[in-house]
Amino acid sequence: MRKLNLLILVLISSFTAMRAVTSEKDLWQLHTSDIHADYVGAPVANGGIGLLPWKEPFSIQHVILNHVFDTDGPKGVSRVLKGINPFLLTLELDGKKIDANSLSDWKQTIDMKEATHNTSFLADKKAKVTYSICALRNMPYAGLIRVEVKALSSLTMKVMNRMDVPDEYINPESRFRTLFESNLRMDVFQTSALSRHRQVEVAASSAFLFQDRKNFAPTYDETSKQLSFTVSLKKGETYSFALAGAICSKRDFIDPYNESERQITYAIHEGADRLMAFHCRLWNELWQGDIRIEGDDDAQRAVRFALFNLYSFGREGTGLSISPMGLSSQGYNGHIFWDTELWMYPPILLLNQGIAESMVNYRTNRLAAACKRAITHGYRGAMFPWESDDAGEESTPTFALTGPLEHHITADIAIACWNYYCVTHDLHWLRSHGYPLMKAVADFWVSRAERNEDGSYSIRSVVGADEYAIGVDDNAFTNGAAIRALEYACKAAEACGYLIPDQWREVGKNIRILSFANGVTREHATYNGEMIKQSDANLLAYPLGIITDPKIWEKDMEYYTDRIDPKDGPAMSYSVFCVQYARMGDAKKAYEMFCRCYEPNLRAPFGVIAETATSNNPYFATGAGGLLQAVINGFCGLQITDEGIVQVPSVLPKHWKKVTVTGVGPEKKTFERGG
C-alpha cells in the first residue's frame, strides 16, 4: 500500500509539473485560429531587417530595412526603404495552387521565446503544412522560412520562390547561379535594383535549404524569374525544406550584390538546424532581461510582447536607434524622434545595456549634424532634429512646425546620456561620447533661454510634448527637460573633472515652471484648459522628477486626465499616470491607468499595439515603451539615480501576486514586488 501511495504521489507530482510547464510555455505564445477574423499582422525582426507575416499561406507583406533611406518623392523628405522581398513562396499540390480558399484547420502562433511566427493548416485536405518564419538574430540581414509538409494522400508537390521588387525601385535585374564548393551544390537566386530617387543599391539573394543538399537541384525559369522544385510524396510521408533570404544595401556594404550572395552561401553551408540553434541561443541571452507577472496572464503576455518587439527592433553594436513603428512598417518614415529617448530607451537601458548603447550612440555619432543645425538657427552648441534620418539632419516634412519648434528633444537626448552613465558607470564613455554631447546641449539651452526682468529665464516659441499647442512660451515639459539637461551637464562635467560654466547653473536654476492659482502645473504661459494631445505638465513628476510632492502629482493628473484627446491621443499619458499612482500607493487608480495605457490600442489577433485607440498600424514601439515603464518603473518601482538603479516604494494591482524584473543593469540583478 505504501508503494502504491508513493506511486500516486509521483504521478500527481509529475502531472502538476507538466501543467506548470505547459502554463509557462503558454505565457510565451500568442495564438489565433480564425483566418476570417480581423487581422493586424505582427512583425518579426532582428534589428537589421523587419518582416511582416500575414495570414495567407507563406505571405510576408514586406521587408523593412533599418536606417536605409530613399525619399517619399523626387523632392520629398527621407523615407526608410522597403527591401526587395526574397521570401515569396508558392505551394502547388497536384498542379493546384494553395491559397486562403483551400485551407482548413488554420492556426498561427507567435513564439516569443524563440522569436518565430508559426502557421499550420490542412491544404485541400491533401496535406498538413506547417511553416515557421523568423528574422535570424545571428544574421541581421537574413531571414529563414522552415516548411514541413505531411502528405495525407499520395501527391506531387511543386514549391516556387520568386522575389517582390517594391515600386520604390528601378532597373531590377535577376540572375540564378549554381556554385560548387567541396562537392556542396549551392543554387542561389538573386535580384538587385536601385531605389527610385537616391539610387541606393539593394540586393537580395535566396536559396532553398534541403536535408539532402548534395543530390537535390531546383530549377530556374528565366522568363518568370522563378526558382522551383518538385517532389512526389506517398501517403503518410513527410518532407521538410527551408528558404533562406538575405537583403543587403549600399548603406551597410560597399558591395551589397555579392554580400547578399555570400550570406546565402553561408546559410546553405550551415543548414537550417544550425542557423536556428544559433538564433535561439542569442534570443535566450536577450531574455535574461525579462518581466514576470504572477496573477494576470493577459497582462503578462501583453507586457512580454511589448518587450519582445523592442528587442526585435534594436541591436547591440549597430549604433542605430528605434523609430516609432520599429521595423514593422514605413510609418513616420522610419525617422527617430523623442519616442526613443523618453519611451523606448528607459526600459531597454535597464534590461539590455548593449542595445541601449547603440540607441544613445546613434545620437552621439550625429553630434556634428546637431551642432550645424544650431548654427543655422542662430544658437550655440547642439540642436538635434525633431525627426532624424541616418544623416542626423532635420527630416520633418516642411509643412510641420514640429521640425523648427519642438526643441525639447535636445534636452531629452542629454538626459538619456546621463542615465546611461548612471546605469553603467562607464567613465570612458562619458568622457569620449556622453559629455561632449551634454556640453553642447547645455550651451544650446543657455543660448536658447531668455532672461526676464525678475531674473528668471523663459524659453519662448516652442512645441512641447502636447503638439496641439504651437509656438507657446514656457512650456512645462520643455522647460523641465532643459532644467534637467543643464543640471546633468554640470554633474557630468564634475564626474569628468572639468570646470563647470557658471551660466549652466545660473540658467538651469532659474528657468520658469508655471502654475495656476490652485497649484496645478500650467502647461504653458497661455494654457487655459484646452484639449491636449498627451501628457506634458505631468511629465515633470515622472520621468523628470522635478515635481516631488505627490499632492501636486495628484492635482495635475486629476486636471489633465480628462483633457487628453480620447480619439487621437497616444496611450503613453496613462503609462506615466500609472507610474505616479503606483508610487503614491493608489493601486486602484494605478491599475486603471495601466489598462488605459494599452488595452484600447490592442489589435486582433495577437495584441499588436496601435498608436491610438482608432488606428491600425502594425506595431507602435513607443507605446510598448510606455507600457513597460508602467510595470518596471511603476508597479516594480525601479528608478535610475546618480548612484545607480534603486527600488522605490510602490504598490501592485490587487489581483497581482508578484512582479519580477530580471537581468537588471550590468550586474543582471533581480527585483521583485509582492509575493
Automatic annotation (TrEMBL):
Annotated keywords: Signal
Gene3D superfamilies in alphabetical order: 1.50.10.10, Glycoside hydrolase, family 65, N-terminal domain
Keyword presence, Electron transport: no
GO molecular function: hydrolase activity, hydrolyzing O-glycosyl compounds
Domain Glycoside hydrolase family 65 central catalytic: start-end pairs: 304-495
Extent of the signal sequence: 1-19
Stored InterPro entries: 6-hairpin_glycosidase_sf (IPR008928), 6hp_glycosidase-like_sf (IPR012341), GH65_N (IPR037018), Glyco_hydro_65_M (IPR005195), Glyco_hydro_65_N (IPR005196)
Gene Ontology terms: biological process: carbohydrate metabolic process
Domain Glycoside hydrolase family 65 N-terminal, residue spans: 61-245
Domain of life: Bacteria
A Pfam family hit: Glyco_hydro_65N
SUPFAM superfamilies named in the record: Six-hairpin glycosidases
PANTHER family documented for this protein: GLYCOSYL HYDROLASE-RELATED, PROTEIN-GLUCOSYLGALACTOSYLHYDROXYLYSINE GLUCOSIDASE
Name of the protein this chain belongs to: Glycoside hydrolase family 65 central catalytic domain-containing protein
